[in-house]
């Protein structure tokens, strides 16, 4: 299919979307499912519930990326009509699933922030974390609800309608299509949501929060004078903080392009094939982050052995066990392709005129 494309940005976009993107999503999905299996069989580490939630978000992000990015790209490069079955699937996947894709992205970074806050509290204020919460997934469910609420307005950016194929005389040849709604064309809406709230809540504030908290944790651990019996315990703490920092670093390396894209004049560059290729690269990096997370889990937990260690076994006396539970927070024993959607959209979709909506 890519052979028919001229050598240039569109040719590389075809290779990226139809070959590399499915490979990243498929392998990443397998790796995250493997992490979920390990995490569900390991309950002693206080990071495990949040890591389960992170892997679950990554799985759904990779799955929805395949539907939202691959199917419209396949429709685009196969040059199918918008009234084909593939065209209908492209409309449904982009219009219904793209807000969910953004929501799981938000839930992932906010969960990392939650983990860092919990670790900071447990290490710097151990007496406040003697007992772990009885429902560790409750705050994670709240994060998911907030992420869905924050991105729910994206569904309002579509105006759905039934479109009849003008080349077909049959009265039954209709597809359910969509186009940008009045809200999607509102400049004030995009200025507030895409240029202010989204960069602040999903990028800048989390970056500042994570940098400060993890720096304080590392500083506290480095300055503590501990006995020989406790050194392995603090080595685990260092690795857990390094894991968090690595995840955050990969997130911002892979998502900085998406942040910059929101401040670009879409109408000026949307017809450029090179600009379309850059959006494809941004979408790929978006999924590389979820692909690399399981590898980071594997490396920085000593092949998951840290998660299998019951930390109370490192301490001999009841007093030192109390300190251990306080620090860990655990209880004892527990065509020129143009993209559709709103102005900052990165996704493809067909339109009834045979071109992709801006």
UniProtKB/TrEMBL annotation:
PROSITE patterns recorded: G_PROTEIN_RECEP_F1_2
Keyword line: Membrane, Transmembrane, Transmembrane helix
GO molecular function, one term: G protein-coupled receptor activity
Pfam families in alphabetical order: 7tm_1
Transmembrane segments: 19-40, 47-71, 91-118, 139-162, 196-219, 240-261, 281-300
UniProt keyword Nucleotide-binding, yes or no: no
Cellular component aspect of the GO annotation: membrane
Keyword Transport on entry: no
Domain of life: Eukaryota
Subcellular compartments: Membrane
InterPro entries: GPCR-Ligand_Int (IPR052954), GPCR_Rhodpsn (IPR000276), GPCR_Rhodpsn_7TM (IPR017452)
Domain G-protein coupled receptors family 1 profile positions: 31-297
Protein name from the UniProt record: G-protein coupled receptors family 1 profile domain-containing protein
């Amino acid at each position: 299919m890519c052979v028919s494309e001229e050598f240039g940005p569109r040719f590389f976009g075809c290779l990226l979307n139809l070959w590399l993107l499915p490979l990243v999503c498929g392998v990443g999905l397998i790796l995250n499912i493997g992490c979920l299996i390990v995490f569900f069989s390991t309950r002693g580490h206080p990071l495990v519930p949040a890591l389960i939630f992170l892997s679950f978000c990554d799985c759904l992000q990779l799955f929805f990326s395949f539907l939202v990015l691959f199917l419209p790209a396949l429709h685009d490069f196969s040059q199918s009509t918008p009234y084909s079955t593939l065209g209908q699937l492209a409309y449904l996947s982009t219009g219904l699933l793209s807000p969910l894709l953004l929501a799981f992205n938000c839930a992932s970074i906010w969960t990392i922030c939650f983990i860092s806050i919990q670790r900071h509290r447990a290490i710097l204020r151990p007496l406040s974390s003697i007992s772990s919460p009885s429902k560790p997934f409750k705050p994670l469910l709240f994060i998911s609800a907030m992420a869905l609420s924050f991105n729910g307005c994206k569904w309002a950016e579509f105006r759905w309608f039934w479109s009849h194929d003008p080349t077909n005389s049959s009265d039954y040849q209709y597809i359910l299509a969509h186009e940008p709604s009045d809200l999607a064309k509102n400049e004030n809406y995009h200025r507030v949501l895409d240029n202010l709230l989204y960069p602040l809540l999903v990028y800048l504030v989390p970056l500042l929060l994570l940098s400060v908290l993890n720096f304080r944790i590392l500083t506290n651990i480095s300055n503590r004078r501990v006995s020989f019996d406790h050194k392995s315990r603090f080595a685990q703490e260092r690795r857990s903080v390094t894991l968090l920092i690595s995840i955050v670093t990969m997130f911002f390396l892979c998502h900085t392009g998406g942040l910059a894209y929101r401040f670009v004049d879409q109408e000026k560059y949307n017809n450029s094939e090179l600009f379309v290729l850059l959006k494809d690269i941004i979408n790929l990096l978006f999924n590389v982050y979820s692909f690399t997370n399981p590898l980071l889990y594997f490396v920085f937990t000593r092949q998951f052995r840290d998660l299998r260690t019951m930390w109370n076994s490192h301490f001999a006396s009841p007093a030192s066990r109390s300190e251990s539970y306080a620090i860990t927070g655990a209880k004892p024993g527990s065509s020129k392709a143009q993209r559709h959607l709103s102005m900052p959209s990165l996704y493809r979709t067909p339109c009834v005129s045979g071109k992709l909506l801006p």
